[in-house]
Recover the amino acids of this structure.
């Protein structure tokens, strides 16, 4: 159940931003493109607003932390690799479907998020993990749904 909620959230956020307007946060037209950015941390030097790269970095890490948390099964490296592979697949899909920038920064921050999630899971009791992820995912999905209806 938690994995399904997290997967839904990741798909909505990564592909949905090309079709959903959030005034002051992002414009869908900006994300309806096919572009590859391979320079690491380039957005920290070329961002339109000083806070934009930080929002992107922290947002991507927060988005992928639940993936690392759920994927953790006695190996932080394995969970991080799953996060990396999923991130690479998403960035490839965004390029193929012209649904956003395919950005090396996203792969880095997504993978770091999965690493953080896996590290947290390694310290958590197994019976608590799924409830925490399910509740957190439900809260984030509710906020995302509320924002999209406002826009």
């Amino acid at each position: 159940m938690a994995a399904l909620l997290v997967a839904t959230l990741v798909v909505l956020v990564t592909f949905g931003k090309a079709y959903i307007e959030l005034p002051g946060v992002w414009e869908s037209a900006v994300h309806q493109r096919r572009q590859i950015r391979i320079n690491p941390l380039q957005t920290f030097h070329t961002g339109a607003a000083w806070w934009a790269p930080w929002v992107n970095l922290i947002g991507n890490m927060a988005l992928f932390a639940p993936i690392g948390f759920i994927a953790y099964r006695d190996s932080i490296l394995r969970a991080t690799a799953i996060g990396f592979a999923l991130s690479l697949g998403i960035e490839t899909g965004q390029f193929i479907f012209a649904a956003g920038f395919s950005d090396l920064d996203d792969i880095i921050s997504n993978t770091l998020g999965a690493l953080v999630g896996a590290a947290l899971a390694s310290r958590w009791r197994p019976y608590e993990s799924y409830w925490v992820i399910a509740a957190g995912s439900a809260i984030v999905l509710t906020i995302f749904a509320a924002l999209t209806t406002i826009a």
About this structure: Strands lie at 34-37, 100-103. The mean pLDDT is 79. Residues 42 and 105 are 8 Å apart (CA to CA). The two ends are 29 Å apart (CA to CA).
